[in-house]
């Protein structure tokens, strides 16, 4: 399946938290990492990344620090905070149980009802 | 944690706004540059790479806006925007803005001023360490709370274990000579534990040692900072130096800070009590204020039950003095300030009503405006403003009004407070500390905010729920029915609140009028009174003290312009007094038969000088001396109390001193005269049973009861007040002795009424303002109604309705509103005025005349307020009215 998928509503935050949990990244880096892990199957509007980042930072899940990028540009690096770690865990659990339920529902055959 | 984090992040981004914007810019640019780099690396030309980076990033401004919102910065932006818009809208209707701000300023100003007084007098804690632990201990006897005898104080001190410190004080004044002029200074005689009880340190020197509080110790004194600055020239080396107190050189050992006034008596001197063994054994003379600090962990109830046990013990030990006597403690602050509570709360409630009326008026104006603004608001809604945003915007507009009104209010409060401090009753403690301070400002801001929501929310919600199509469809001729109902309800509410205030003010005014017609019982014109206190040193001997006063009288009599002069232990309206128990002859010696009565020691000339009418028997003569049989004159109240159905003349009672055979040996006084009642405490107070005994027969011990102090009463021939002559007359007879509190009898009477006149005056102003504001409310609603119904009225007139008919319709509506408000207000007033009963004299709180007069006045004003719009309605030209749209 090569077709790119649109992001489900509300999942971008979770993906950002996951990406940042693997190591400090700047905004563009987060985008690249998500695309890399998803093997380019997710389409993320570049600009939409930033309001999400600021919201997460505002809520204290991630923290930021100015640094220098690989090609010597000033860039803001984001890291997961302790609170963010807990949040990621909670969102992952929530997502998994939700996915289970949905899969169960969608997998229902007529004779099971 | 995250709430704190959000707040910090919000604060950071709000406070460092430009930094945040710059950072955001840098970050987004760096993102696009990095992406462009990657594209170039993939073989795209630079120009194309930059273009694609930009396009794929999306709308950069939108991203920024969303980012700002994520950080909560937009809320503030919008608020500022709304406030600016509010100011612009109000600038466009200056008339409305002026009326609203003025009304609100008046309400907030009055509320803030009264709050600052309440705050200073009632709410601010006493300036002593942990004031909640300090109690006032009083004796309770026959239902009344009294001062404590030295003996009881001493026994309680020894028997109790609930107090960390216990101390006593009695208020006295001292003759002082600091700069060659004798002056009288108020102070207290206190135990050495007094200062420890309050836990306040002196600013210089020290407080008394226990040694100095022993009889026979060289006299020492602690002075107030106020006295130290005014009378001792703030002399830094004053500690250890002597000043002359009551004629004796007395060493100054300490200076107390100016905030130290634990009993709110503005004392300037404290001298040690140094009770003698004889005083410590005395259980019959009750004059001490006793204060105690509870031990840590001891609660009031526990200390009280300990006192109950002690009281039982003392009742058995001293059956003569302490039978029926128990002790009560209460927190010092409530004991000192309890009297102020009622009238201050009344004022606070009154200004609260006033503020509500003001808010109702503004809400009314806003509702009227919101109708004319419907199209503007509908347009904004059509352009995409959410209802939420519209409500916020309208509230912001009201916030602008609230803030402006609040600022005006604080300005008004500032002048009102200085007026109140200058003209308020002198007897109200701590009144002079009223000022605009942080807590007052906080109060005013909260009031301003709350009131802008109060008057703004209803109109705002109403506007926001406006349906677009209705607005653009509707013709202006049809009035919104429910809107009129809200406005009418507001007016009805205003009227009822105003009526309650008016009834309260009416009752106080009627009471004040009645009091001013009360007969004081003697001729108060052309009478001057001043107090003279002889020091113990040099005047200890009763005969010397008596002769000094007699010489003073002779000298005063001889002054030009003086008709006659007299001395009395406590002149009417001059403050103070001492009471004694009388035992009528023929009744068994039992406390139940003792009649408590006010004692007046007078020179034989007193009754004729004051012109107190003699109702029966004879006046005293110079021949009534201690060598002759003891005589007394009683007032009619006392005669009626003891001998209700008989003549009092010739009857005897025992009092004041014991005979040669000891305590149980009575000293009989024969009643030789009965005089008219005198309202000695205040015109609005009941007359006390009173008896008079001649100066030449007074018990030697009574010189101590009255502190060797007598009031000199002088009746002039109507000429100028010979104040200087009186001062030099007193000084010529008793050097270094001042005459103080010198004023005419009429001034003394007005100062006893000062308090109730002040209450009456303030409440009347509030009531008048309330009446004015609610009549403006009636006027506003009717004018609006007439304007809305221009077309209806025009049609009716075209169809032949008479002018009178139209006038009556409008008037009828106004009067109906007023009448409903009146009925509600009357019900409220009936419930509320009961609280006033202790402030009233001779008027029942539900006085029918007051209620009727006030209701008529209100209806009259409502009629006038309705008449103007009614007149306007008749001037409507049907032709123009029908073209109204």
Written account of the structure:
The complex is a heterodimer of chains A (113) and B (885). With 113 residues, chain A is α+β, with helices and mostly antiparallel strands. Chain A has four helices and five strands. Chain A has helices at residues 12-21, 27-37, 49-59, 82-106, and strands at residues 5-6, 25-26, 42-43, 62-68, 74-80. In chain A, the strands form two sheets. A three-stranded antiparallel beta sheet of chain A has the order 2-5-4. A two-stranded parallel ribbon of chain A has the order 1-3. The mean pLDDT of chain A is 84. Chain B is an alpha+beta fold. In chain B, 54% of the residues lie in helices and 16% in strands. Chain B has a six-stranded mixed β-barrel with strand order 4-5-10-7-9-8. A six-stranded mixed β-barrel of chain B has the order 15-16-21-18-20-19. The longest helix of chain B has 44 residues, at 745-788. Residues 475-480 of chain B have low confidence and may be disordered. Chain A binds chain B through residues 26-28, 45-48, 50-52, 54-55, 57-60, 69, 71, 73-76, 83, and chain B through 1-2, 5-6, 9-10, 23-24, 26-28, 30-31, 33-35, 37, 56-60, 62-63, 66-67, 69-72.
The separation of the N and C termini of chain A measures: 31 Å
Examine the coordinates and then state which fold CATH places here, giving the name of the CATH topology of chain A.
Arc Repressor Mutant, subunit A
Q: What shape does the CA trace of chain B take?
A: globular
Number of domains of chain A: 1
Spans where pLDDT lies below 50 across 5 or more residues of chain A: none
**What is the makeup of the main sheet of chain B?**
6 strands, mixed, barrel
Structural class of chain B: alpha+beta
Q: Describe the main β-sheet of chain A briefly.
A: 3 strands, antiparallel
Report the strand count of chain A.
5
Strand order of the largest sheet of chain B: 4-5-10-7-9-8
Strand content of chain B: 15-25%
The chain pair forming the largest interface, with residue counts per chain, is: A-B, 23 and 30 residues
Q: Quick check: average pLDDT of chain A?
A: 84
Indicate the radius of gyration of chain A in whole angstroms. Answer: 17 Å
Oligomeric description of these chains = heterodimer
> What percentage of amino acids of chain A are in beta strands?
15-25%
Number of helical stretches of at least 4 residues of chain A:
4
CATH architecture assignment name of chain A: Orthogonal Bundle
């Amino acid at each position: 399946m090569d077709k790119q998928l649109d992001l489900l509503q509300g999942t971008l935050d979770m993906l950002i938290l996951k990406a940042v949990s693997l190591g400090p990244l700047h905004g563009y880096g987060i985008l690249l990492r998500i695309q890399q892990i998803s093997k380019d199957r997710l389409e993320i509007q570049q600009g939409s990344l930033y309001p999400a980042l600021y919201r997460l930072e505002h809520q204290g899940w991630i923290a930021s620090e100015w640094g220098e990028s690989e090609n010597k540009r000033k860039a803001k690096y984001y890291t997961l905070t302790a609170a963010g770690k807990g949040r990621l865990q909670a969102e992952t659990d929530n997502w998994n149980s939700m996915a289970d339920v949905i899969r169960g529902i969608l997998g229902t055959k007529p004779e099971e009802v | 944690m995250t709430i704190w984090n959000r707040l910090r992040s919000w604060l950071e981004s709000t406070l460092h706004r430009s930094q945040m914007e710059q950072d955001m810019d840098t970050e987004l640019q760096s993102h696009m540059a990095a992406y462009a780099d990657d594209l170039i690396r993939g073989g795209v030309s630079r120009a194309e790479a930059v273009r694609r980076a930009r396009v794929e990033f999306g709308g950069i401004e939108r991203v920024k806006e969303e980012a700002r919102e994520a950080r909560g910065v937009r809320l503030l932006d919008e608020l500022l925007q709304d406030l600016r818009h509010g100011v612009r809208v109000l600038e466009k209707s200056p008339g409305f803005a002026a009326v609203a701000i003025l009304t609100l300023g008046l309400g907030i100003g009055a509320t803030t001023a009264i709050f600052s007084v309440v705050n200073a007098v009632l709410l601010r804690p006493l300036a002593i360490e942990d004031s909640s632990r300090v109690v006032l201990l009083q004796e309770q006897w026959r239902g009344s709370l009294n001062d404590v005898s030295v003996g009881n104080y001493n026994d309680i001190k020894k028997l109790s274990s609930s107090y960390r410190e216990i101390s006593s004080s009695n208020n006295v004044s001292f003759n002082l000579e600091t700069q060659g002029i004798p002056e009288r200074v108020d102070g207290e005689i206190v135990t050495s534990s007094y200062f420890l009880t309050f836990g306040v340190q002196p600013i210089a020197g020290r407080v008394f040692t226990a040694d100095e509080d022993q009889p026979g110790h060289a006299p020492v004194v602690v002075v107030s900072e106020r006295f130290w600055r005014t009378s001792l020239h703030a002399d830094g080396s004053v500690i250890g130096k002597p000043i002359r107190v009551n004629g004796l050189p007395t060493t100054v050992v300490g200076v107390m800070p100016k905030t130290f006034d634990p009993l709110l008596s503005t004392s300037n001197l404290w001298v040690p009590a140094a009770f003698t063994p004889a005083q410590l054994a005395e259980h019959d003379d009750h004059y001490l204020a006793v204060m105690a600090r509870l031990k840590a962990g001891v609660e009031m109830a526990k200390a009280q039950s300990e006192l109950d046990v002690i009281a039982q013990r003392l009742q058995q030990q001293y059956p003569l003095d302490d039978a029926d006597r128990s002790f009560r403690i209460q927190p010092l602050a409530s004991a000192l300030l309890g009297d102020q509570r009622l009238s201050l709360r009344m004022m606070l409630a009154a200004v609260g009503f006033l503020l509500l009326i003001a808010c109702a008026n503004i809400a009314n104006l806003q509702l009227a405006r919101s109708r004319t603004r419907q199209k503007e608001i509908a347009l904004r809604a059509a352009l995409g403003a959410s209802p939420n945003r519209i409500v916020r915007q309208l509230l912001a507009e009201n916030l602008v009004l609230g803030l402006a009104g609040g600022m005006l209010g604080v300005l008004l409060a500032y002048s009102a407070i200085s007026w109140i401090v200058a003209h308020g009753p002198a007897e109200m403690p701590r009144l002079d500390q009223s000022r605009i301070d942080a807590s007052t400002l906080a109060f005013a801001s909260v009031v301003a905010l709350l009131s802008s929501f109060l008057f703004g929310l209803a109109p705002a919600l109403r506007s926001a729920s406006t349906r677009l199509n209705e607005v653009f469809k509707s013709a202006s001729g049809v009035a919104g029915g429910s809107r009129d109902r809200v406005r009418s309800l507001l007016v009805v509410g205003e009227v009822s609140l105003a009526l309650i205030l008016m009834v309260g003010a009416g009752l106080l005014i009627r009471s004040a009028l009645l009091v001013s017609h009360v007969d004081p019982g003697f001729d108060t014109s052309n009478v001057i009174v001043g107090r003279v206190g002889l020091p113990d040193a040099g005047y200890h001997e009763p005969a010397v003290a008596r002769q000094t006063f007699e010489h003073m009288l002779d000298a005063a009599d001889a002054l030009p312009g003086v008709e006659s002069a007299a001395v009395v232990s406590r002149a009417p309206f001059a403050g103070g007094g001492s009471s004694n128990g009388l035992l009528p002859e023929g009744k068994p010696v039992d406390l139940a038969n003792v009649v408590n009565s006010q004692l007046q020691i007078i020179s034989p000339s007193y009754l004729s000088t004051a012109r107190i009418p003699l109702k029966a028997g004879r006046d005293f003569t110079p021949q009534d001396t201690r060598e002759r049989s003891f005589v007394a004159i009683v007032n009619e109240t006392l005669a009626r109390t003891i001998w209700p159905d008989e003549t009092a003349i010739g009857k005897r009672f025992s009092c004041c001193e014991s005979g040669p055979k000891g305590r149980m040996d009575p000293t009989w006084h024969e009643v030789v005269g009965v005089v008219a009642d005198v309202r000695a405490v205040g015109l609005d107070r009941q007359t006390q049973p009173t008896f008079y005994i001649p100066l030449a027969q007074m018990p030697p011990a009574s010189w101590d009861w009255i502190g060797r102090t007598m009031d000199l009463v002088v009746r002039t021939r109507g000429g100028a007040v010979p104040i200087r002559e009186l001062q030099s007359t007193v000084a010529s007879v008793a050097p270094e002795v001042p005459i103080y509190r010198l004023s005419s009898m009429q001034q003394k009477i007005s100062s006893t009424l000062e308090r109730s006149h002040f209450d009456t005056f303030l409440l009347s102003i509030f009531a008048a303002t309330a009446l004015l504001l609610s009549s403006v409310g009636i006027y506003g609603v009717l004018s609006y109604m007439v304007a809305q119904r221009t077309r209806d009225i025009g049609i009716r007139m075209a169809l032949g309705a008479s002018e009178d008919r139209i006038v009556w319709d409008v008037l009828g509506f106004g009067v109906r509103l007023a009448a409903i408000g009146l009925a509600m207000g009357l019900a409220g007033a009936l419930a509320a005025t009961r609280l006033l009963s202790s402030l009233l004299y001779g008027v029942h709180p539900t006085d029918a005349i007051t209620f009727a007069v006030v209701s008529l006045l209100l209806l009259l004003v409502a009629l006038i307020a309705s008449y103007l719009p009614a007149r306007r309605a008749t001037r409507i030209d049907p032709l123009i009215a029908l073209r109204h749209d």
